[in-house]
Amino acid sequence: MSSSFDAVRRVIQAYPVIDNHAHNLLREEHADVHPFESVTSEASGQALKGVHSQLSHVRAAKQLQQLYQSRSGDWDSILDARKAARRNNPQKLLSAVFARTHCILIDDGLDQTHVHPYHWHSRLTHAPSKRIVRIESVAEAIVNARPSLYEEDARDPAGVSQLFAAFQGSFKYRMKQYIEDPEVVAFKSVICYRSQSSLDVAARQPDIGRVAEAFVSHVFSLGKRDSGKKSRFASKILNEWLLHETLALIRDYRPAKVHRKPVQLHTGLGDTDIRLLQSNPAYLQPLIEMYPMVPFVLLHSAYPYTREAGYLATVYSNVFLDLGEIFPQISRGGQLAVLRQSLELTPVHKLLYSSDGHYFAETYYLAEVQFREALEVVVGELMQTGELEADQAKNLVQSILFENSNQLYRLGLSLAAGLTAAAPRASLDSIDTASAAIVPITTNAVNLAAVDYVHVQWTDYLGQICARTLPSAAFSRLVADGKSIGISHGNLGTLQNDSNSPICHPVGQIYVKPQTSTLKPAVSATDPSTGIKITSATCMSTFVSSTSAPLPSCPRVVLSNIVGQLQTEFNISPLIGFEVEVIFLRPDSSSPLSYAPYTNTTSHSWSSFNPPQHAALPLLHAITTHLAAMSLPIEQFHAESAPGQFEFILPPLPPLAAADALLQARQACQHLAHQHGLRATFHPTPLPGTSTAAHAHVSLGARCSPTAEQNFWGGVLHRLRALCAFTLPSDASYARVKDSAWTGGRHVAWGTQNREVPLRRVPAEAQQVARWEVRCVDGLANVYLALAGVLGAGLVGLREGKGLRGARDCTADPAKLTEGQQEELGIREMLPGGGAEARAALRERVEGGDALVEVLGRRLVEDYIVLRDAEGKMLGEMGREESHRFLVERY
């Protein structure tokens, strides 16, 4: 077991964590408002004086001594070493603490006076922090915002009763906003602290009359307190009403088929405000049953009721168990016992890591170090007894530390290759001083302190990449402040030459919100006059409203929503692998099209490696090297059949990440080619006799049954003519759609390993799953909408459950079959003959009320059709050569 466990141990110590429950750090000017001894204890006041003899504190002191490199282990010396570390280089301390933390989910309701805002913490980690909204804090903030209502002359019973109705409306309104806010990933209730009966919550909506009476009583009590006293809801029925109201809003939220945000509940261990016997999560069983569609996360290992919580997480699909707070609050032996108990019964995919870090960075550090130590011991035991093989152990570790939270909270995070092997940092001496001078945002190998600019990018409906460029410092401030870039809503209705279409409207604003998980290095430029290199990064973005709610008009949002529905309804998590087919052209003024092939036309062919292809290696090497720096290591590349054409194979990724990666890879190809004096184009037929596509390889995953696979692809095949409006959007697209030319053909059909049909099925090979190649996609498409269309049609097919609708496996060139043979295979339709025909097919789906239109969004589909019609008219008014050059130079 030794060598196999060594590999598992490396994963345990190096794999990044998503901290699914933590709190804000204190601002420097308030660093002393809480005693530092509280890092290892829930005790306070006189009771906290006994912490120094507590085993958990003794152990933590030794680990802090190592962190600060203190010469002595006595507590005063450790405090002196800590003070020196914070004074000399506080950022170095933060770098040591958060070295292996990928993302933090922050409950910012613990203290809103002395701490940094939740988004400030994004500078500490690879991915931006997300917010957990504390339910009770929302309600109390509404009351605290209207202090005049509690003055003596405003306190008559009738007036306060009316006030409850206003309060009720305000609470619902704010909670709905938070449900829609993409920065909010979960809610939390501390009802365990707020009523004598703690978690014994009635499994029914409280009587609204009694709730109003409790609210009136609460308001009256405020008036009897000292001026400035803040509202704190202590009534059992009032707190139960807040919780039920929130759960019902989450349950009934209309777009919730995509994703219902979890509710975290404090259970078990806490300060003296709780009643320990009533903090047993077993009391929650009726409430959990009442809201089966709402995910519940039982916090703090429910210690000492871990087994009870594990039982609930086992028998209810909507219950998850957080493994936090006991690290570093209890002894090593206690931690091992809790971890073993959590694994006795609970499915591994229901267990979530958290630090419950709060106020002091060291709380995050101690929790993570001790959790990894405990995990190493327990996993080692399971491997020693043969209960886990090495691969199973690695999966357990990765699931608890990262993957489970990533999926439950729908964070959409992916790990770059370099992030999965971070060396553990045990002390400040292991941090390079120069690199620790600041703690920049570092995502996917981009250190913002080392780049000059960030290109915040998005795609319009026509598939063009648009950008706003920010100096890196301005970008960092934008992200840290949780802000977005405002653009006119009318920009969604303009054509490639900036002329207006019928859907262009001058009124309205949308906001472009950077998605820092997509941050990647861009191709650098060099100032020819000075030789100075200008470095930059690229970051894809999402359209949001002024309240940061995702907009249904955003192609990226549409794709994300469909992926969420596939996961939620059918447990399908697709992977997409794109082929980057590109043709390199050299300027040629003698050509009517202004360009000529880059490589020799007589010696270039599919997979050839003749001197002209060898001469292209410097450019090809520059591309592959840069893609690797973008965390997109290519699988392989080779010459394609057209002169100057090459193909790069990107790795399979989740749909949103795959679309982002394709656009960023294409842009890198174009910028590097330009530096070599060439034009890289993804136009489907840039020169006579040439042809490029953007084939998408779609895997539905090992959990997808054969029946589900047929239902999915039956939905796609049934709507393929309409889908071509997204995948083959222009008349120029159809110049490459030919029979018997290995371009996917013109017949609506599918076949196993058949390249003459638009849907090629690639059967499963050893240790792999089957995938389908969608061959009717090209470089003029908006890739988000193209994928959304295909996956959306598959989603509808799964819901309809009609299989492949009579379409059989075509193992021949459909164009060479007789009509009778085609009919026998269920081949009854042809692909559209042009962009207008494809849009007509899509328009028929709109008018017929097809479910695909509702999945994509009717307004978006209608606007898209109008915009593409306007594009077709604009291109038609140009001459053939002019319109051809126009598209080659833009795509």
Automatic annotation (TrEMBL):
InterPro entries: Amidohydro-rel, Gln_synth/guanido_kin_cat_dom, Gln_synth_cat_dom, Metal_Hydrolase
Signal peptide start and end residues: none
Residue span(s) of domain GS catalytic: 555-891
GO molecular function, one term: hydrolase activity
Gene3D superfamilies reported in the protein's UniProt record: Glutamine synthetase/guanido kinase, catalytic domain (3.30.590.10), Metal-dependent hydrolases (3.20.20.140)
Family stated for the protein in its record: Belongs to the glutamine synthetase family.
Protein name, as recorded: GS catalytic domain-containing protein
Organism: Carpinus fangiana
Organismal lineage: Eukaryota, Viridiplantae, Streptophyta, Embryophyta, Tracheophyta
